[in-house]
Write a structure and sequence with these properties.
- 2 copies of one chain form a homodimer.
- Chain A is α/β, with parallel strands linked by helices.
- Chain A has one domain: Rossmann fold.
- Helix content of chain A is 41%, strand content 26%.
- A 9-stranded mixed beta sheet of chain A has the order 1-2-3-5-4-6-7-8-9, with helices on both faces.
- In chain A, α2 packs across α3 and α3 crosses α4.
- The two termini of chain A are 26 Å apart.
Chain lengths: 242, 242
């Protein structure tokens, strides 16, 4: 892990890094403080495009006593493209534009290769981040891609709680992994998410194996998550990571 | 409105009252303080049986700067019985016990007469409570019976926010009233509620006309609402009543 830049903003230290060619950003308290539990910030890919929202979520987390970090997704942002991934994304957009059903085959082509590539990268990031001074486990995962969050939560015992944003299609195979998840969960659903299937999200919530799981559904589209959910998220992680 | 008893407990003044023959309980701050917004506490009927949980909810509300009050439901607790209501309840229990579907006809017989009797009583209670010193509008409704909350929220402009507990069957006619509701809502659903229909609750959430509405679904049965939802409820009412 190599830090490539750093800046202080309103008491928060923001550092860009690369790890085996994967760019990422780490946010920590700007001044010396007790070791902070880590929250991994999930997103749909494209760190530059997502930066304003990610930085806002990260600063909120740091203010509440956490460290926050994220990495770029495979084939997104400045990382090398994948022809197969772009074809799968085009197939999804074509189906949505034509008002046709999003088939399981499209979802599998879109998400399964992403999972196989991304989840080990998030785990490598966890290795590196948790070895830094000032950052401590357990860690949380917060955001989308929900399938990444599910697989991480099922596979990596360092993830002790997860906020899963139900804003993307989920392969059937991931429903099986969902049954293996046992950590406390907060699932966020936008009721009128234009890039999601509400019933599928409700079914996934039902399938998750955790005995402590809460669904927060709010009216509105994909990007319309109300501001008060940020406070709820902080309290959720405070209950389980501190 | 006539107060029949009063006691101070941990800084909370609890007073029983009767209003036109309807028993009720009012909880306010034990010492002089600024006028407090009122939260009406809904429940399934049977004040004595429900008292421990109602009193806990009320004390939490008073501690957070609200007044709280509740009244007995028609044909429940110490109030005169209704043969028709008992027959309808028996029909519901028989259907559930036999694993048969709960028909709309059973739900209508059970809930519609209750609504017609109860909602004007809650409105009379609002008249009396809001005229007391130390209590101010706007008011909130918090709890079940969800159909009572929906009709009150649709019909009475003094109700400015409502937490609706989706823990009972809802007549189809109430879905129409739900579309008229425009105030901010927090809907609580227990995912495995044994006395409820999950899909009906989700449909009702969808039907509610409010542009600010949030669903909190938690794993577990009817009485298993997690403790942290009490804090969420307080923050919800603080956002909208203060």
């Amino acid at each position: 892990m190599r830090f490539t830049s750093g800046q202080h903003l309103d008491g928060v230290l923001e550092r860009e890094f690369t790890l085996d060619g994967v760019p990422g950003i780490l946010w920590t308290a700007g001044s010396a403080s007790a070791p902070a539990p880590l929250i991994l910030l999930g997103h749909p890919g494209g760190l530059r495009r997502m930066y304003p929202r990610l930085a806002a979520r990260a600063r909120h987390s740091v203010t509440e006593g956490f460290a926050a970090a994220t990495i770029e997704l495979p084939w997104a942002g400045d990382r090398p493209r994948s022809g197969a991934a772009e074809e799968a994304r085009a197939a999804l957009h074509n189906a949505l534009r034509a008002g046709e059903p999003v088939t399981g085959e499209i979802v599998d082509r879109l998400v399964l290769p992403l999972l196989d590539q991304a989840v080990p990268e998030w785990q490598s990031a966890l290795d590196a981040l948790l070895s830094l001074p000032g950052i401590t486990g357990p860690a949380g995962y917060s955001g989308g891609v929900i399938s990444i969050g599910v697989r991480l939560a099922a596979a990596d015992p360092r993830i002790a709680a997860a906020l899963l944003f139900a804003g993307s299609y989920v392969p059937r195979a991931v429903f099986e992994e969902a049954r293996q998840v046992t950590i406390p969960l907060l699932v966020l659903l936008q009721w009128d998410d234009e890039g999601n299937d509400r019933q599928m999200a409700l079914d996934l919530f039902g399938a998750l194996g955790s005995t402590e799981k809460t669904l927060h559904a709010n009216l509105g589209g994909h990007t319309g998550v109300p501001q008060f959910e940020a406070d709820d998220a902080t309290r959720f992680f405070a209950r389980h990571l501190k």
